[in-house]
Amino acid sequence: MPKPFSTKLSNYAASIISNLTDKINAARLPNPDRYEDEIFSYTSGRWVYNEQKHVESHYISFNVSALQFIATKAVGADRCTSMLKIAEGASNKVFLMTFSNSARVIARIPCIGVSGPAHLTTASEVATMDFARTVLGLPVPRVIHYSSRAKSTPVGSEFILMDVIDDMEFHDLVRRSDTALNELGKTVRDTAEMLKTLCQTPFSQIGSLYYKEDVSLDLQTRPLYAEDAPTALGGADRFRIGPSVGSEFWKGSRKHLLVDRGPWMDMASYAIAAARCQQMWLKVYAIPRTLIGPVGNSTVQETPAAHCALLDNFIHLIPYLVPKDDRILRSILWHPDLNGSNIFVNDSTFGSRGSVIAFIDWQASVCAPLILQARHPPSMEYVGGIDDLPVHATKAPETYIDPETIGTSRRARKAALHQMFEQRIKENDLYRHSQSFAYRDYLVSLMYCVSGTWSDGYAWFRENLYRAEEALRLHDPDYIPLPVVPRTQLAMHQAQYKATLLRHHHFELIQDSLGLVGEGWVGHEKYDGVMKKLPGHRKEWDEERLGPWPFQDGTWSVED
């Protein structure tokens, strides 16, 4: 099948662009203030601290007329009749465009300040969606047109135009009190099958997926698939593995660093590159400050040099923690965020309700070792206790959800979904095998923490290193000891770690009580009420025990 328009525009697209400039220059946007306030700016909520920083990073201006013109031609219409912003995520603005021939498309504009590397993020996402849809046969929206280079399009911004998905978001199905467990079970079944397909598609390297022409000539000569990949897989002539677009290499000011971003031939090289990237960021950007992150550590250990030393310890542990089993080291693609809004399901009442229609939002996908990738989808994961859940939560998937019990309990539904996913994923031998590696939890935790040492705190990362090293001391006779926490410092470290947990706990309590998300985000309708309550929480915050008050401008941000 032909791929969507690439950044090397087809003759058709080029002919559009060639005569577009004059039309764009002559056009006047109706009421420019409306675009500035409603289209370019972030309008979906507020932040209770560091708001100006967030507002600036989520602002993106572009030529609306050019986008409408290109989209109109792409769907064979005469004109665009409406363009409505329908969503704003952490990294993108999403618009629903309607045309004179009744066609509709989704237009997505990345906010480059927070969405990842220019060009690479969009180029990789489009290639990943195309690969998933046309090679693997997964339910993924079709890309109609795109540009991954802002300077090469009259729009003045990267963009993706894709098919509209009209069905229900999975989290809406979960919330409905008339939903049967067997309907939720269909979503779980289809999701598990999709992940099984990904597990069975091994790539030759660790990185992100691109069209062949979007990677260097050297990378174009490398094979797409690993040697043990099924011979029937297609796409080897169209796709390649290139640099990773993972956030650990690009978030915040990391995008300015000259570091190794892959692709890598083995997991050890990948893990070391992640640690080296964080060390470089610490040396260049992590200047000691008076305000520390919500779970930061205010001790003298909170210096870039101390964090770099911990990362050296992590690098020492890598050869011992990385498994030798090629089956769980295989590089596989994984969906980066299977939350309930990224899974669209059938809303029909005629037997197929709950079956997956589309998996959306593949931005920042990476191909990485199975042992790191295989995990519960967030929409099907429950981390609480089971003792206080309604009995229905532990019954068979075909049990009907009683509105008087599970129907009113979000936790009970989460528990039921978790259990159903556990049952389904057992049919995936590769996934199940990846969970059995003795040091898996240590390795996954450390890889997750590597790029967050400064924000999460010294004691947090050191504790993860300490636990991993203790396991190696006990079970690996070849391990060369490296005292991450010398015995003389153990009591002090444990006290610091407990203090970190305490700060994190109190921070989460305030976040939850006020309904805040992420770095202090809240909906417009709740903002005034939250701002009135914050001073009361501020008075109760004990800085001597908990460190600096986190809900104030200047606190660490992921956008730093």
Q: What is the gist of this entry?
A:
The chain contains 23 helices and 14 strands. It has helices at residues 11-18, 20-26, 32-40, 51-57, 64-74, 112-115, 120-135, 170-175, 181-199, 217-220, 247-250, 267-285, 304-321, 326-329, 370-373, 410-425, 429-434, 440-449, 453-456, 458-475, 490-514, 524-540, 543-546, and strands at 46-47, 80-88, 92-99, 104-110, 143-147, 159-162, 168-169, 208-211, 239-242, 331-333, 343-345, 356-359, 367-369, 521-522.
In terms of topology, how is this protein built?
Layout: H1 11-18, H2 20-26, H3 32-40, E1 46-47, H4 51-57, H5 64-74, E2 80-88, E3 92-99, E4 104-110, H6 112-115, H7 120-135, E5 143-147, E6 159-162, E7 168-169, H8 170-175, H9 181-199, E8 208-211, H10 217-220, E9 239-242, H11 247-250, H12 267-285, H13 304-321, H14 326-329, E10 331-333, E11 343-345, E12 356-359, E13 367-369, H15 370-373, H16 410-425, H17 429-434, H18 440-449, H19 453-456, H20 458-475, H21 490-514, E14 521-522, H22 524-540, H23 543-546
Antiparallel strand pairs: 1-14, 2-3, 3-4, 4-6, 5-6, 7-11, 8-9, 10-13, 11-12
Model description:
By secondary structure, the protein is of the alpha+beta class. It has helices spanning 11-18, 20-26, 32-40, 51-57, 64-74, 112-115, 120-135, 170-175, 181-199, 217-220, 247-250, 267-285, 304-321, 326-329, 370-373, 410-425, 429-434, 440-449, 453-456, 458-475, 490-514, 524-540, 543-546, and strands at 46-47, 80-88, 92-99, 104-110, 143-147, 159-162, 168-169, 208-211, 239-242, 331-333, 343-345, 356-359, 367-369, 521-522. The strands form 5 sheets. It has a 5-stranded antiparallel sheet with strand order 2-3-4-6-5. Strand 2 and strand 3 form a beta hairpin. Helix 9 packs across helix 16. 40% of the residues are buried. Mean pLDDT is 87; it is low at 1-30, 291-298 and 387-408.
